[in-house]
Design brief:
Blueprint lengths: L10 H15 L6 H12 L3 H5 L3 H8 L3 H13 L3 E7 L9 E3 L9 E4 L4 E4 L6 E7 L14 H8 L4 E2 L2 H9 L1 E7 L4 E8 L4 E6 L4 E7 L8 E7 L2 E3 L2 E4 L2 E9 L5 E8 L1 H10 L3 E2 L5 H5 L2 H6 L10 E14 L2 H30 L3 E6 L2 E6 L2 H20 L5 E15 L2 E5 L1 H12 L5 E4 H4 L4 H7 L2 E8 L8 E8 L7
Parallel strand pairs: 10-13, 11-14, 20-22
Antiparallel strand pairs: 1-2, 1-5, 3-4, 6-16, 7-15, 8-14, 9-10, 9-15, 11-12, 17-19, 17-20, 18-19, 20-21, 22-24, 23-24
Helix pairs in contact: 1-2, 4-5, 7-8, 11-12
């Protein structure tokens, strides 16, 4: 963590020095002009944009690759210039009401979306966005979300989900107001409750929602009262007569809350939503960050949460190993063997980084790496075989590789992120099938987007085989990938 800037040292100079100092200690790092561009960009942002720095949008603004933009943000976070935030948001409505400063705090399983009033999965693939914000140590003060409705939405809704014009218009037509209530404050609102509709009272920051339905008989009360407390909203559901409604609100919590009032024809909105579904901009997910080499190097799992278990539904795992290395050690001796293994690790780690993955760990001569995209993992495996081919041709052990795509658990292993589950075992078993110079793929990998095209462009053959993997009784359909004209499988 960097020290706070002093009065006689401008913030932008302090930012540059902190980045340069950290970059100088890294084995690979962006050049100083690129780091300087980042500092100038961050320094020029308005308070709202400083509070939500999305790496992919940063890449567009600065003309960088997404991978480099993520790299810059991670380095800046490690240098103490940025803070990392993990936001669980709903892909149905865009609500981003759960915000965590540490990934370990994200609760695996399901969470309740206050807007949709239903449970949503909290997987790291799509539901957890990673954003960065300027550090408080640099004087950044988070914008007040209670100034108006726009400020509230900027805090508690994702900017990446866009409703179609018909859906957005229907929701806007139903808006009845926004209130910010201080602790203990009471407010009275008079509004029109339309027949056949319900009034939604929504407090995203407190995860509270209530419905007041128009009584179809027309003889319900014309007043309603809601008490917002630490244990909920009381009552969560009630009826009132259509027409002019007087609503009394009381904040019984010990902090300020925001309240959105809207009276929407939800059946019409649902029909429009199905006909015109929303679009979602690309964003950095927690899974994407966990498969980024720089993050793995600079950040680890919290030692305070040894029982960490987080679910990733779609992860690509690559395992490699050297064939016949034990014999090689005996023949060449420890000194020569150590040199070869060290060069082998450096070569493979560089390829994993270049292809957008992350090395999780090394085990003896084996490497375990993770990728968000199966094509990147396959391309990395092909790169590895191509780069190691001259070494194996000179008499060194051949390189074996296996790639699988599936769900996995993220776990805390002595302060670093590791992976557990059947998918991990499956990838390791695929690698064990290889003879050296070849790659074994599972069916989910081969059928992923652009994987076959990548293999064909490299002039490699795909050979389907029915084999029993280690730990499995029934044979599985797997695919051996090898260079055209190469030796057949043993």
């Amino acid at each position: 963590m960097t020290d706070s800037p002093t009065p006689d040292l401008p913030v932008i100079v302090h930012m540059e020095r902190a980045l340069y100092d950290l970059a100088a200690r890294l084995s690979t790092a962006p050049d100083q002009p690129t780091l300087r561009r980042l500092c100038e960009h961050l320094h020029g942002l308005d308070p709202y944009d400083r509070d939500r720095i999305a790496p992919y949008q940063l890449a567009e603004r600065l003309g960088l690759t997404r991978r480099l933009a993520v790299d810059l943000c991670v380095i800046a976070a490690r240098a103490g210039l940025l803070e990392i935030s993990y936001q669980v948001f709903c892909l149905g409505c865009g609500a981003a009401e759960y915000d965590y400063g540490v990934l370990d705090q994200v609760v695996s399983g399901a969470y309740f979306c206050t807007v949709c009033r239903r449970e949503r999965p909290a997987d790291l693939d799509d539901r957890v966005e990673v954003i960065f914000r300027l550090s408080a140590a640099l004087g950044h003060v988070r914008p007040d979300p209670y100034v108006d409705l726009q400020a509230y939405r900027r805090r508690y809704f994702s900017p990446h989900l866009h409703f179609s014009e018909p859906v957005a218009s229907a929701l806007a037509a139903g808006l009845r107001g926004f209130l910010a209530l201080a602790p203990g404050e009471r407010a009275t609102v008079r509004l029109e409750l339309l027949e056949g509709r319900s009034l939604q009272v929504l407090a995203l920051d407190a995860h509270l929602v209530a419905q007041i339905e128009a009584d179809h008989r027309g003889d319900g009360p014309r007043e309603a009262a809601l008490h917002l407390s630490a244990v909920g909203i009381d009552p969560p559901h009630q009826h009132a007569a259509p027409g002019q409604l007087t609503l009394h609100l009381e904040n019984q919590r010990d902090r300020k809350i925001g309240v959105i009032l809207r009276c929407v024809d939800w059946e019409r909105v649902a029909a429009l939503y199905r006909e015109h579904p929303p679009t979602v901009d690309p964003y950095l997910s927690a899974r994407d960050l966990l498969t980024h080499q720089r993050f793995v190097e600079l950040f680890g799992a919290s030692a305070s949460l040894p029982e960490l278990r987080l679910q990733i539904q779609r992860l690509t795992l690559l395992f490699t190993d050297l064939r016949g290395s034990t014999r090689f050690y005996l023949d060449r001796g420890d000194f020569d063997a150590y040199y070869v293994v060290r060069e082998h690790f450096a070569l493979l780690q560089g390829i994993v980084r270049a292809r957008g993955g992350a090395v999780v760990k090394t085990m003896g001569d084996a490497v375990m790496a993770v990728f968000a995209d199966p094509r990147d993992a396959v391309a990395a495996a092909l790169d590895m075989q191509e780069a190691w081919s001259p070494w194996s041709a000179s008499g060194l052990p051949g390189l074996k590789a296996g790639v699988h795509h599936g769900p996995a658990l993220v776990v805390n292993s002595d302060g670093r992120y590791d992976y557990f589950g059947q998918s991990v075992n499956h990838a390791a078993a695929l690698q064990a099938l290889a003879d050296g110079g070849d790659i074994y793929l599972s069916e989910p990998v081969l059928e992923a987007s652009r994987v076959r095209e990548e293999i064909d462009a490299r002039r490699h053959n795909i050979e389907p085989r029915e084999l029993a993997l280690k730990g499995q009784q029934a044979p599985s359909l797997v695919y051996r990938v090898h260079q055209r004209g190469g030796p057949p499988a043993s």
